[in-house]
Amino acid sequence: MPDEHKLRNHRHLGWLGRHLHDPNLWHLTRKSVARAFLVGLFCAFLPIPGQMLVAALMAVLISSNLPISVGLVFITNPLTMPPIFYLSYRVGVWILGIERGIASERSWNLHTIQTELASIWWPLLLGSILCGIISGLIGYLLINRFWIWHVNKSWRRRILARSRRRHRDDP
Asked: Which of 101, 98, 95, 88 is nearest to 133 (CA)?
């Protein structure tokens, strides 16, 4: 990730104005990290080029941690993209109640690809958005709960260590 000061002062990013000065974009807080998981996981499911740009813009708009939001988009990479988008497509087909799936034609030429793209774009988009919302919400809730659990555990450990030191120091 580029330096936050360079991003704030970049001439092409001036239109974002005060939003780039939000400390939640750069600091690790429970709320900013949980929102980053919401944004990053949602954008990872989007079947579009430029997922990182969408994640960055959403992070700025809802004050989530920018590096985590953008980094989570890499969940969809060349290895994971086919199963993720196929699952999204199947969810879309199921929601829409479409009987016919992807064509079984073996000859893939430009005409076949255009025909198939025209028939799968709506179930793929719907399934991707739904899977993105669900995974983003689950990520948000899990990170939020994990953060609270971890902080409580750290406080309990500190209190226990402090009480042990007191008992050791008592005559």
From this structure: 88
The three-state (H, E, C) secondary structure of 71-111, written as one string: HHHHHCCCCCHHHHHHHHHHHHHHHHCCCCCCCCCCCCCHH
Query: Hey, which bits of the chain come out as E strands?
Result: none
The closest alpha carbon to 57, from 3, 98, 7, 110, belongs to 7
Query: What pLDDT, on a 0 to 100 scale, did the predictor assign at position 161?
Result: 86
Question: Over the chain (171 residues), what is each successive 10-residue block's mean pLDDT?
Answer: 58 56 76 96 95 93 92 94 92 86 55 75 94 97 96 92 79 63
What pLDDT is attached to residue 22? Answer: 66
Best CA proximity match to 123, nearest among 157, 153, 100, 146: 100
Residue whose token pair is 């994971």: 80
Q: Is 123 left (phi over 0), alpha (psi -120 to 50) or beta?
A: alpha
pLDDT per residue over 71-94, tens digit each?
Answer: 999 999 999 998 999 999 999 999
Give residues with Cβ within 8 angstroms of 73, minimum separation 6.
40, 43, 44, 51, 52, 55
What's the gap between Cα 28 and its chain centre?
Answer: 16
d(CA 28, CA 13): 23
